[in-house]
Automatic annotation (TrEMBL):
<protein>
    <submittedName>
        <fullName>Acyl-CoA dehydrogenase</fullName>
    </submittedName>
</protein>
<dbReference type="InterPro" id="IPR046373">
    <property type="entry name" value="Acyl-CoA_Oxase/DH_mid-dom_sf"/>
</dbReference>
<dbReference type="Pfam" id="PF00441">
    <property type="entry name" value="Acyl-CoA_dh_1"/>
</dbReference>
<dbReference type="GO" id="GO:0003995">
    <property type="term" value="F:acyl-CoA dehydrogenase activity"/>
</dbReference>
<dbReference type="Pfam" id="PF02771">
    <property type="entry name" value="Acyl-CoA_dh_N"/>
</dbReference>
<keyword id="KW-0285">Flavoprotein</keyword>
<dbReference type="GO" id="GO:0005886">
    <property type="term" value="C:plasma membrane"/>
</dbReference>
<keyword id="KW-0274">FAD</keyword>
<dbReference type="InterPro" id="IPR013786">
    <property type="entry name" value="AcylCoA_DH/ox_N"/>
</dbReference>
<dbReference type="GO" id="GO:0050660">
    <property type="term" value="F:flavin adenine dinucleotide binding"/>
</dbReference>
<dbReference type="InterPro" id="IPR009100">
    <property type="entry name" value="AcylCoA_DH/oxidase_NM_dom_sf"/>
</dbReference>
<feature type="domain" description="Acyl-CoA dehydrogenase/oxidase C-terminal">
    <location>
        <begin position="271"/>
        <end position="419"/>
    </location>
</feature>
<dbReference type="InterPro" id="IPR036250">
    <property type="entry name" value="AcylCo_DH-like_C"/>
</dbReference>
<dbReference type="InterPro" id="IPR037069">
    <property type="entry name" value="AcylCoA_DH/ox_N_sf"/>
</dbReference>
<comment type="similarity">
    <text>Belongs to the acyl-CoA dehydrogenase family.</text>
</comment>
<feature type="domain" description="Acyl-CoA dehydrogenase/oxidase N-terminal">
    <location>
        <begin position="26"/>
        <end position="121"/>
    </location>
</feature>
<dbReference type="InterPro" id="IPR009075">
    <property type="entry name" value="AcylCo_DH/oxidase_C"/>
</dbReference>
């Protein structure tokens, strides 16, 4: 049964509910969506305009979301949350981006990712449980701090970060180039190399860091779109945290990435790009159905060219939405409707096997949003080029989709390469040698070049063997203390 009235959505003058896959939502989820759409009209959307104009962090929008219990959307009901599932998370993010504020939708995506990372390992961690039970009452905003200044969009490779085991717990050093909500979040899930790091960058661990322990530079944030998102740098400079602030066991980083951080980020960010595409279609529909050309006695919407623009934009966006929601439903099925208790078994990683599918939904949604916003601008003509119609803001916000890590260049290569050469060929941490390329390059060298190279390599081997025998020299040479 659909509970949202047409009037609620047509307040925005956009597409009717005939084009929404409401059958995917439970009656409770539809009721929640109704309330959220109302909140978007009254609070989130007016704030979105101010956020964009003045680079304001959308904390007021988070306060509004907390009034519906949405900060604890995924938290089990016995811990005071809404106990909702993956499909619902995608719907909420899409709705916020479409009717409310895309910057808030992205900050909320990162919040949900951080909440999920905490829920994943909360079963035996009182600190995480306490945090998760207070999200709405305290308007406690979380986020994910992963990207490293030295490795760009390879956010799984934190070369500038590390952690040490000390008597009091852990000493955490995190340097991040981008962190949504940096300086505004109340808590961060950060990833570093593990305390026992020995040069293997796949050995990663996660930590919970509170807002007053991290240094941010929000005054430096100024971007083309998602301007309320405040994705600035973050520094955790040797902060000492107690043992329970490690999220999961030592070395849990890869499991956490593949099972939680990537699936949730890719699901919810795809929903964000779909919501932005729909928001642009809504705005454009409102304009083209009202604007008239007196000379020919027609509205802009009466031209077949314009109808074609909308037909294609709706069909492509519906494909991306169904693709995204289908992955949400798969995650629900894999986890007994998002039952976090199954992770009491730390080896239970049901979402991880489908990583290559999450890559694909993000690629499609991020590609589609840029195209759709562009076409909706064309459909509105010069009027769309002006700020007051809001379509240019949606277009700028949507541009973040392609460049946000994992970027669409990386994703399409992951999919193509793994399909052709196998998943092991992806080599995230630069560990396996491409013998084919190596031998091809060696073929180009003269005998003298090869001799010189061999001497250099032998010297390197001697040097590393000496360092292995005298580890104090190895410490000095890597600069790690
Ligand atoms: C709005 C926004 C919010 C963000 N929020 C967060 C956050 O909350 N937390 C967080 O951790 N990070 C966040 N990020 C960071 C993001 O995930 C990336 O790390 C960041 O966008 C990378 O930017 P860069 O300039 O270093 O790109 P680069 O990595 O330098 O990329 C430059 C170009 O090289 C291409 N490229 C890079 N590697 C490859 C490859 N292996 N194969 C093919 N092409 C490649 C890229 O696709 C791109 O075209 C955010 C980014 C944005 C834009």
């Amino acid at each position: 049964m659909t509970t949202t009235t047409q009037a609620d959505k047509t307040f925005f003058g956009g597409l009717s509910e005939d084009f929404d896959p409401q059958w995917l939502l439970t009656p409770q989820q539809q009721t929640l969506q109704d309330k959220l759409i109302d909140l978007c009209a009254k609070v989130l959307r007016p704030n979105a305009i101010a956020s964009d104009q003045n680079l304001i962090y959308p904390r007021k929008n988070f306060e509004a979301l907390a009034s519906l219990g949405l900060l604890g959307l995924l938290v089990p009901q016995e811990w005071g949350g809404l106990g909702e599932n993956h499909t619902c998370a995608a719907m909420i993010v899409e709705t916020i981006a479409r009717y409310g504020c895309p910057s808030t939708a992205m900050c909320y995506t990162m919040h949900l990712g951080a909440v999920a990372a905490a829920l994943f390992r909360a079963h035996d961690n009182i600190e995480l449980q306490t945090l998760l039970q207070d999200l709405d009452a305290k308007v406690s905003i979380g986020t994910l701090s992963y990207s490293d200044p030295e490795t760009g969009s390879h956010f799984w490779y934190p070369v500038s970060s590390r952690a040490e085991e000390i008597a009091a717990g852990w000493q955490v050093f995190k340097r991040a180039s981008w962190t949504t909500s940096a300086g505004f979040a109340d808590w961060y899930i950060v990833q570093t190399t593990s305390p026992n790091f020995d040069g293997d960058y796949s050995d990663l661990s996660c930590f919970l860091i509170y807002g007053d322990e991290a240094q941010a530079e929000p005054h430096k944030w100024d971007a083309m779109g998602l301007r309320g998102n405040q994705s600035g740098s973050l520094l955790v400079d040797g902060v000492v945290v107690p043992p329970q602030r490690m999220v999961g066991p030592i070395g849990d980083g890869v499991a956490s990435n593949d099972e939680i951080v990537d699936p949730f980020f890719l699901l919810c960010s795809s929903a964000c790009w779909n919501g932005i595409a729909l928001g642009a279609i809504d705005i454009a529909k409102k304009h083209v159905t009202r604007k008239k050309h007196v000379d020919v006695g027609m509205r802009v919407a009466d031209y077949p060219t314009i109808q074609d623009y909308f037909g294609e934009a709706i069909i492509d966006t519906s494909a991306c939405r169904m693709y995204t929601f289908s992955m949400g439903q798969l995650m629900d099925r894999l986890t007994n409707n998002c039952d976090w208790s199954l992770h009491a078994d730390t080896l239970a990683l049901p979402r991880s096997a489908y990583l290559h599918w999450y890559w694909q939904i993000k690629f499609s949604a991020a590609k589609n949003v840029a195209h759709v916003c562009d076409k909706m601008l064309h459909a509105c003509g010069g009027s769309g080029f002006k700020k007051d119609m809001e379509i240019e803001r949606y277009l700028r916000d949507g541009k973040a989709g392609w460049v946000m890590g994992p970027t669409n260049e990386i994703l399409r290569q992951f999919v193509g390469k793994s399909a052709l050469l196998g998943f092991e060929s992806l080599d995230y941490w630069n560990q396996s040698v491409n013998e084919r390329m190596l031998h091809n390059e060696l073929k180009k060298m003269t005998a003298e070049d090869k001799r010189k190279l061999a001497e250099i390599l032998l010297a390197e081997v001697d040097n590393s063997e000496t360092l292995l025998k005298r580890p104090e020299m190895a410490m000095a040479s890597t600069g790690r203390d």
